[in-house]
Each structure stands twice: as C-alpha cells, then as structure tokens.
C-alpha cells in the first residue's frame, strides 16, 4: 500500500521515458524536462523557475529525487510532490532515461549521472554561506561541479555578476558555464507586491501591525538562539493592534520532525501565532509584513527586497561569506534585543524605516532586478533546442495563501475609562503578568482549560450567522455551568457580538470597524456599559459599538 502523502504512481513512473511510449500521451510533447529535487527548499526555488515553462504544451515536466542518498533535510519532499500531484520518476529510472533538459537547485546530487544538459540554479539568494565546518561556498562545491575532468552543468545560473569570482575559486572550468540571469525568486516575490492587501487579509491583519519572524535552521538561527521568541511576541504584543506569523526553514522540521516543532509552538499558536507550512506562503508573509524579525538566512535579504522594516538576531556565525550582501545587510540593520521589551523595538524599526533603505544592498545581491524571466527563459529554451514562445516572459505572483486562523483560547483584558470612551487592552493569556486596570479573563468555551474557565469572567464561543438562534439556550447553560462567569458571549460574523449577563439580559453589539475582533464588545457588558452607542479605544483608534 502506498504511504499516505507520497506521490501517486504515474505514466512516467511505470514506463521508461522513451519515445516508443509516446503513443500513450494525449498531448504530443516535444521535450521532456527532469526536475531534480533534493530538499523542500530546493523544490520551492525550482517551482519559481518552472513557472516560465510549465504551461508550454510542448514540454512535459517530470520530477525525481534520490531516495537512497537523501539530503539531511530531505524530509517532506515526497509529501510536497504529492501535494503538487506531479509526475515522479524513481531515481534509478531517471538516470537510465534520456531527457532534453535537467534542472536542479543543488550540486550535491549525482547530477553527472544524467544524460541531458543540466541547469544548476542557487537554492538561496545568491551564494551567501559556506557549508558547515568548511570554506566551500554553498552551491559551488568544486568536487560536484567538475567530475572526472568534466564540467557537470551546462549552465550555472548566477544572480549577480560578482558571483562569478566565487565560481572561479571553485574551478575555472565551471566559471566558463556561468550565466547571470538575476534571481527568479526575488522577481516573483516583487511581482506580487500589489497583492499585499490581500495577503494581509489572509493573515487576519487588516488594520493591524503584522510582525513576521523568519528563522533559518541551525543553532545560530533565530529559533536556535531565542526559542521562546514566538511565544514572547504573542504574549507581549497587544492582540488588537498586532498579528504575528512565523516562517520556519524546512530544515527545522526536517531535523526535529513536524510533530515536535508543532508541539514546541503549540502554546504560541493557542495565543494566536500563525505558523506557515515550510513549503509555501512565506513570500506572501514577507510582502504583507509591517516588520520582519530575521536571522541571517535568505529571507532577511528577501524581506529587504520588498522593502520591509527589518530587525536582525545574531551575528551570522562562521558560515557567512565575507563581503557578501547578507554581511552588508547585517552591518546596517538594527538588532533585536531579546532581553528588552519587544513592542517598542518593533515600533522603532517601523518608524525609522524609509522606502529604499535596503536598495543598495539588494542591488549587491541581485544584478538584474525584475529582469530574470527575460534572461532565464531564453537560456532554458536554448538548451532544450526549442523555439521560445512568442509571449513575454514573466513570473506570476504567488497566490493568496489559505492561512488557518488561530482562535485564542483565553484573553487577559484591561478596561478603563478614557473620557467618554472605554479603553480596552487585550493580551493572549500565556502566564505572562500584565498589570491592567479593570483586569478580567475571557475564555473560549472549549479551547480554554478547565482551570482557565473556572476563573473566567466571560466565556465565549464563535457562531456562524445561521447558528445565532443557538445563543439563548447556550448562554443560559454556560452561565449555569460556570457560576463565577458574569457574561456569556458569542461572536457572529466579523462585526457582531451577542452577550447575556447573569441577570438574564441579552444584547446584540455591533462594531463599525470590521477589522477589530467583535469579542472586545463583551467587556462592555462585563463593565455594565451598554448604552445605545458606546465608543471603545484600541490604542489611539476609536471604535463605535451600537447596542440593541
């Protein structure tokens, strides 16, 4: 039986990739292209490049990976290919078959075994790091680029002309195959800048400051250096002013397992942290971000490429290549102090940022910004010996991700008079102490623990519009079940909160600002402030609530 999540068998996996079997095809393809996948990271980079040729009816794309000689971070590759529903050829069959082109994003597979022109592209933004415990630039291992006196790749893609010097150090023979084509990932990221509002909506962040933390792998990474940073962010930042999202390098889950990483982040998730899957969505997160907190991985430079305020953690360690763009970015970017309050540092980074602050450094990393499609696609078709399509070469923007909302289990809420308004401050309750006036707890009916519910002043649930008739009976039962609760509340849609107080009075509270969680209105019932029109303040922002 096929293991769940692995690619399903396909035509290409059942028969040799040979013209004798073309009679079974529906589309008369003229070229067969093999995509060599080593890790989830390399696959995400390859998909950017494949977007230039994937819709050409003359080209069949086939994937492979070496299951017998896997990379340390190869976990997740079969599952990701399964999600793509791609044709996957077993490694042994792939090296015994003839292809018109091979595309790879790592030199560490045995690419010399393939019978086809090979295009080798970086799996990061240029060549910024050494391999661990070596002085070999990652992506330019001379022992892999040249085998038995023969240069393996027909083309080595560079994102900047200065990278040719690194390639010469790896071997002059390989340097002769270098072609500067810019950075496809950079250009596709920038192609989606106009979708930033839609991306922000997907992260639940309209009207909020979206803080994205981006961690590469290893002990010197953000997560390795400050493993409690995700929880601290959601604990310290006011819920109604901020949203938080974590983007983790696939190597983290590959080394520790998705289950373990999920367990480590479970408390932060229950407090509202959105954690993206390793294979997708990070591009939208960077584009949507109000501020990015990163280590010295590629995502720091990609955040700079979309001109986002940036805070760095760490020093890059011994793997950072001297003189690289990431080193230059480190020299001019403020560090996050993990021992100081996070909110003021984030606000200062946003306040100090000016458009174009990172432009000079990004220019050092990407030699032909926004031109990669026009530079790379002709090379691919040249190597396939196939006429290039007449359409303009361009990268499609990334789709709006389907981000699972994280419903907070329990809030600690402060409420106090602010003139004619009521100022409400909410934090997810994570054990961190908050000294607040009018302090009370608001707990979710099922997500909160028994102990949390027993001390809550408000117990709430979320209802669909079609279920609002459940509220009278549900609220009566809740107040009977939890005798210390003063209010039962239910959010309905994006702007309405139904409340019932212990004296049996029911009210419908409607917010005029749909970007604010309507649950905040339940605190007005707890404070017994339910005149026909009330105003609450979230930070300095007034929000009108209509009561009926």
Any overview of this molecule?
This is Translation initiation factor 2. By secondary structure, the chain is of the alpha/beta class. The protein folds into 3 domains: 19-183 and 370-384, Rossmann fold (3-Layer(aba) Sandwich); 190-357, Rossmann fold; 410-547, no CATH class. It is 30% helix and 20% strand. The chain is built from 22 helices and 22 strands. The strands form 4 sheets. It has a 9-stranded mixed beta barrel with strand order 14-15-21-22-20-19-18-17-16. A 6-stranded parallel sheet has the order 2-1-3-4-7-8, with helices on both faces. Strands 11-10-9-12-13 form a 5-stranded parallel sheet, sandwiched between helices. β14 and β15 (421-428) form a beta hairpin. α12 (250-256) packs across α13. The longest helix has 13 residues, at 258-270. The radius of gyration is 27 Å and the shape is elongated. The chain starts with 10 loop residues before the first helix and ends with a strand. 48% of the residues are buried.
Secondary structure tally, helices:
22
Any idea what the radius of gyration is?
Answer: 27 Å
Overall domain count:
3
**CATH architectural group of the largest domain:** 3-Layer(aba) Sandwich
Distance from first to last alpha carbon: 59 Å
- Mean pLDDT over all positions: 87
Overall CATH class of the largest domain: Alpha Beta
Strand order in the sheet with the most strands: 14-15-21-22-20-19-18-17-16
CATH topology-level fold name of the largest domain:
Rossmann fold
- Residues in helices, as a percent range: 25-40%
Class per helix and strand makeup: alpha/beta
Query: In one word, what is the shape?
Result: elongated
Number of E-state strands: 22
| Fraction in beta strands | 15-25%
Poorly predicted runs of 5 or more residues: 1-5
Please outline the major beta sheet. 9 strands, mixed, barrel
Protein name: Translation initiation factor 2
Organism: Amycolatopsis regifaucium
